[in-house]
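Final report, results section. Input specification for complex C-07:
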Amino acid sequence: MTPTLRTSPDNAAPHQSAVLSRTRTSTRLVPIARVALSEYSILILAVLYFLSMWPFIPELGSRANLTNLFISMLPLLAVAIGQTVVLITGGIDLSVTAIIATASIVAARIVSDGNGLLAHHPAAITAAVFAALLVGGVIGLLNGGAITLLGMPPFIVTLSMMMCVSGGTLWYTHSTNIANLPDGFIAIAYGAPLGIPLPLVIVVLLAVLVHILLRFTLPGFWLYAVGQNARTSRISGVPVRGVIVLAYVISGVCAAVASILLTARLETGSPTQGDKMLLDIIGASVIGGASLIGGKGKVIWTVFGVTLFSLIANTLELLDLQHFTIMMIKGGVILIAAGLDVLRRRLNFGN
Amino acid sequence: MTVRPRDIAPIIARVAPMLLLAAVMIFFSARSPGFRTLGSARNILVQSSSVAIVAIGMTLVLLTGGIDLSVGAIMFVAAAVAGQLALGKLIPGAGPAPLWLCMVVILLVGLVMGAINALLIARLRMIPFIATLAMLFIGRGLALHITQTQALNLPPALLTIGQSSLIGVPFPIWLLIIVAATAHLTLTQTPFGRQLYALGNNPDAARKAGLPVARLLASVYILSGLCAAIAGVVSVAQLGAISPTFGSQREFAAVAAAVLGGTSLFGGRGSVFPGSILGAVLIQSVESGLTMTNADPYIYPIVIGGIIFIAVLIDRLRASGETR
Amino acid sequence: MAEPSPLIEFRAIDKRFFGVDVLKSISFSLAPGRVLGLVGENGAGKSTLMNILGGVLAADSGTMLIRGEPFLPRKPRDAAAAGIAFVHQELNLFTNLSIAENLHLDSFPRRSVYGLRLPLIDRAAVRARSRKLLEQVQLHHDPNTLVSALSPGERQLVEIARSVGAEARLLILDEPTTSLTAPEADRLFEIIKRLRDRGVAIIYISHRLEDVLSLCDDVLVLRDGQVVSSGPIVGYTPERLIREMVGRNVDQLFPAHQAPATLKPMLEVERLSREGVLTDISFTLHRGELLGIAGLMGAGRTELARILFGLDPFDSGRIVIEGQPLIPSPRECIRRGIAFLTENRREEGLLMDDSILNNASLVALPLFARTPLKFIARSALRFRAKETTEATRLRAAGLSRQMARTLSGGNQQKVVLAKWLMKPPAILILDEPTRGIDVGAKQEVYRIIQALADQGTAILMISSEIEELIGTCDRVMVMAAGRIVDRIDRAEFDRHRILCAALNTGVIV
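Structure output:
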């Protein structure tokens, strides 16, 4: 600091110190920066949160609650993984909740023992699962097609898709649920071959597949490139349209997987299945570090994000809070996550 | 010069909202005699005024390239606070507050919620989409808390106001005219308005040109909150009650109305008049038409979703026409 | 005559970024009514210096004085208030507003009623003032014209009119001629001189040394954040400027190139046309040949390249690659061995927030994903990327650590080149390959291009710098108004002839 004062005339000295203090604050941010930028920051946060809440809510750490927590976060994780892929391309998929509802109805309509199209047929369960996945894939294809061929913003395409598809499902069912699902179908949620819950196997498999796709394969590299700069990607020979369509198809299929898990667990096909999940899905992905601007995101980050988000939701439920209070707190958590995203971006830029 | 399809497309796109409105009018008039009457036209205007006012605020936000998903929640919070105040339940011991005070409180709540959005976006530089989405949930949660998830039946005096009219023009339309005229004048004739267009067109350049970017951004979110609150007043006066779904999905209707009227989601292009108002009337015409033709209520969201889709498709055609 | 007192004075300005000196003890002064040429390679510290002056960055130490008063801008507005105006390289106009609105955006005259100022724009006053300002920059358009309807050169003039309107005492122009046609640039110089004669101090930043030498009164050469030399322009020659900027002699800017002995056609274009853009374009590009395209902005050069690469459509004509017709699309072109370096490095060449490795890999990725499941052979990819970037003499901290955004313009361009060289191209289309990069990097780009041609790559090079075309190419085609108006062989290269051909059609000088 002394050399500064020596070189500057007296009348400029006060300004100088102001300049220096500005520089100092930016260096002070560096330790915070490390935490914010670290890959595992959200996992650490989740663990810290768990440890700090445990003394106040003893049942939080109980085996029953932990099992419940893990099983209930799996459908959310499945959708959030798909959403992450879309966020990486710089898009957003608001139609996932509608896909969950529609896939739920389609699967239940096929498999239900009551008036199912294939009731009691040996292939009914397989058919229902594939039909649900197909529904997700086709809606994803429509989303991707409208976005790439018509050049429309993903926000609006998937929003209007959400309105039309969920509207269509409600209209078809007139808001009634489809119950009487066969035991074989319900086993998807409650079965546990070799003692490992089946939903866990399914979602871990999904996560690993998407992780491999993103990190090690050509389409994965392309997804990140398109999210960063579609023009550069196109000129560099990346099949931009195909890559974007792929992202929405993956998102649709992931939502369908979540739908199957939810439908089996609740033992009913419901046209409002997943209605309240949108905030959780986007929130968990953004908390995990997928940027809404595109080009960033990892499956493992999303796993962390979903863990933290589900943990918070779980504690709120254990505290017996009203659903509207939970809504407000979740909104607040998303704001914090968005703030963290801003911090990350600024620090990255500063470097 | 020969006329080619790529020259015609933008022209069609520009007049498309008008054509669409005309088509909707003709379609429903043909199917329902009631739709043709002057009374029904007046009803459509009255019913669309709430959405139109929200859409005006949304237009300001969209002009800067942002989005405000919290408008429906702001309507709900503002109305819930004022409603509880009018029923004397907000502050224990205090009696029912006079209606004028409730109106003032509604507007204040709108301004405060808008100011929170402004703080998050202009000051903390969060992405508008995620910040206002979070505010949507916080707001709805808060309002449900205030109303304890019960529907509030408001004093009948309010409904009387909602149905009153001055020089033959109903109260909601008066409010719409005032808000629309002010917004239109602001956008076209004031430095603030022109700077909004500049900001939406090229944010970097706006910063370099020394425009007060943060202040402009903050202003639009505050004004959007205010517009949502005014729309809350209109809706409350029309319905006489506040249900737990009050203002729900209003954000999407407002975006749709603005975009239908030619406002771009990418900033820098759009207008309040005729733009967003035309868009709001168009949406309301469809809803009223569906009601009058006794359509299955389940198909409403499908039709509205389809209209939003078409609106944005038209917007794309228009934009691609301009880059030529 | 006594030395006029300086308008602005820098005293021992220092700036460090993360411990690295970017500016070291910069001192100089500028008097009113003088034009100072600020030259230096990219990364020499010019932008940092101007950012400090403009209030975007704060100096670590040292002072600035304006008319002897200390000046410490904290934000761009402070600089504007002190009478400093910037005309940036990339234009900062609002295309959705009119010329008049752009000129008055931060200072609209307002209407008043009975002395009460209303927040309403006084449209009549805006028009009148705009007319006057446009008169001064000799732009004869109605002030209500939308800026989107103006050419790049006209937009540049609007920017200048804006700073004239702000009554700037110090005008800073950063590479103002990059997007201008020759007559437009001349008009700009006239206006600069007129402003200077009215007492405005001007800092003129440019890589075009001829312009600096003919326009400026003083010159300041920066290298590695230090002032190498400064003083009146007399006594400076292009050679001296280059020597001082680079720190070494650049005798041979253009390496020697041998035209191919045998002519094997690689790319044949026959009567290619697109209404309003290109008319009857026919030419043949041979193996190992360097074919230049000269012309003014808007002559159709970039448009031709974009059509060849399948980015824009065409109405009629034929494109043939090695005897086989081509239906262009970027993917098909890449498959057939065409590479295309666009003029817009930042928006079309790079993933700015991604690593050098990922940028360089983008085009060649499919080659490293041959297995049915399309797994990327990462180590092979990395090895190839390292090899290629080293061949381009890219200077960077680390392939996967450093982001493209943090590289200098020259190094960014080398990354883009490396991207196209990862899979050696048969035909390379270059659109302004040396735009906005410094002398040292230019020379290396020329070296790479020549080496490729020597190895047999057919190269089509678009450039606005005639010297560059004359120095590197075997043949030059001149385009004007969408047509090829002249074809010149190396033996007949003539600066004057190229310029005349470029100007002769459809352009009113």
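Chain C is about 30% helix and 25% strand. The CA atoms of residues 466 and 496 of chain C lie 10 Å apart. This concludes the modelling results for the funded period.
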